[in-house]
Amino acid sequence: MGDNISAIYYFGLEKKAGGKRNKAFSELISSTKDTSYVSVVSGFGKFEEQLNFRNNLEATKQGNEKVFITIGDKYYLVNDSGWILLSSPEDKISVDGKAIVTASEINSRLKRKQIRRMTPSESKDFSFEVYTR
């Protein structure tokens, strides 16, 4: 493809087929050393997995305000702008530094739209921190 290429750009156009609409997508992968055809096709498989995950994540979030969700056999803490992979539903989460709850309990305490930020924690008492302010 040439010696000056250092990025790969994957894109797909919106398509409606069989009553189902496939969304458009694009992804720029920069600083790529191998831009051979084989590498580009192989990389698309990895990108397609990520795209499927994002689509599953958005579908799981639709119509609810849950913070703790399950996709397949994995558990996630989600807000409106991101997600964190959890080890189990029993992972402990600090809420505003005032209360500690398990991941499986957090949906009864918070709505997704209330979360301003969330982060992994180095605390011995809990694994993650969620802030509503």
Task: Spell out the key features of this protein.
globular; alpha+beta; 19% helix; 133 residues
Structure summary:
The protein is of the alpha+beta class.
Let me know the number of strands. Answer: 11
Strand content: 35-45%
Described by strand count, sense and barrel closure, the largest sheet is: 4 strands, mixed
Cα-atom Rg, whole angstroms?
A: 19 Å
**Share of helix among residues?**
10-25%
What is the succession of H and E elements?
Answer: EEEEHEEEEEEE
**Unreliable spans:** none
The spatial strand order of the largest sheet comes to 9-8-11-10
**Anisotropy-based shape:** globular
State the secondary-structure class: alpha+beta
Number of helices: 1
Query: In angstroms, what separates the terminal alpha carbons?
Result: 50 Å
| Average pLDDT rating | 88
Protein described:
The protein has 133 residues and is an alpha+beta fold. Helix content is 19%, strand content 35%. The protein has one helix at 37-61, and strands at 7-12, 15-17, 20-22, 25-30, 68-71, 74-78, 83-86, 92-95, 99-102, 117-120, 128-131. Strands 9-8-11-10 form a four-stranded mixed beta sheet, with no helix packed on it. It has a three-stranded antiparallel beta sheet with strand order 5-6-7, covered by helices on one side. It starts with 6 loop residues before the first strand and ends with a strand.
